[in-house]
Amino acid sequence: MDRLPGTLSVPYEDAVSNLVWIKLVGIGNANVGKTCLIKHFCESKFNSGYQPTVGVDYGFKVQELQGVDLRVHLWDLSGSSEYFDVRNELYSGTDAIFLVYDVTNMASFESLDQWIREVKRYANGDPEIFIVGNKIDLKQKRAVTSTEGKKYAQANKFKYAETSAANGDGVLTMFDTMLQTVCDKQVGGAKRPEGAIRREAQASEIYHKQARS
Ligand SMILES: Nc1nc2c(ncn2[C@@H]2O[C@H](COP(=O)(O)OP(=O)(O)OP(=O)(O)O)[C@@H](O)[C@H]2O)c(=O)[nH]1
Ligand SMILES: [Mg+2]
User: Fold this and answer.
1) Separation of 51 CA from ligand 2 center, angstroms?
2) SS3 68
3) In the prediction, which pLDDT does 68 show?
4) CA 149 to CA 96: how far, in whole Å?
5) 43: which residues sit within 8 A by CB, 6+ positions away?
6) Which overall architecture, per CATH, does domain 12-212 show?
7) 3-class DSSP state for residue 65?
8) Which tens digits make up the pLDDT trace of 23-40?
9) Are 38 and 32 in contact (CB under 8 A)?
10) Where are the beta strands (DSSP E) in the chain?
11) What is the pTM of this model?
């Protein structure tokens, strides 16, 4: 349909009222594969070279879930302690966090507690936390077993997933489960009235519009 540039065929508020915005944040030690997981989800790509994230990076994907197009914002936070201050500014309004460790690197697993403390301190609104053991394709180098990973997640009442950003194993399932969990909590949860997600989507879009202008 032809329309004048810069105009909408329906009022702006109506146009955005059906949009659902979801904010996911990836954290965990440097080099565990956060950027690669996001790249796989958004672009189905993998890069074997390591380019550390400087401060923060960002991905976006429209993902269909049960007939609804979700606008998924993925915040990719650097794992380096150098960027602690940058990260802490970005946790606000997060729907779910994927806390990644590298299954070939015990130190990255042992750092999970420290990441949880950072989240509890700086994220408001009680985001869902997923523990993700990444690089499962490197079977010979595995240092943390599935049982250990699952046990840690269960003890903390978090969900658990294992992935390989290199060959894609488990990646889409992990993101789908996260999105499903967020949607169930927002729309179906007893605490929140139906339609809340839409009103928040609208508020979020207005916020983004204001931030852009
Ligand atoms: N074999 C294998 N390598 C992976 C996998 N995921 C990531 N890598 C490699 O691990 C290195 C680090 O990946 P990144 O995604 O950049 O790590 P990051 O967690 O974003 O690191 P920072 O940005 O420094 O916090 C890169 O060389 C990737 O190619 C995986 O599932 N399997
Ligand atoms: Mg990165």
Assistant:
1) 7
2) strand
3) 86
4) 19
5) none
6) 3-Layer(aba) Sandwich (3.40)
7) strand
8) 999 999 999 999 999 999
9) no
10) 20-27, 56-65, 68-77, 96-102, 128-134, 159-162
11) 0.85
User: Which residue ranges make up each domain of the chain?
Assistant: 12-212
Ligand 1 pocket member 78 (CB < 6 A): yes
Return the structure tokens found at 129. Answer: 């936390």
Token couple for 23: 């904010």
Q: Compute the distance between CA of residue 204 and CA of residue 22 in angstroms, rounded to an integer.
A: 10
- Reply yes or no on whether the pLDDT at 197 is more than 90: no
Give the environment of ion ligand 2: residues with CB less than 5 A.
35, 53
Looking at this protein, which amino acid is placed at residue 25? V
154-193 residue pLDDT tens: 999 999 999 999 999 999 999 999 999 999 887 654 333 3
| Cβ proximity of 179 and 72 under 8 Å | yes
Q: What pLDDT sits at residue 212?
A: 46
Give me the percent of the chain exceeding a pLDDT of 70.
81
Residue 67 token pair: 């007939």
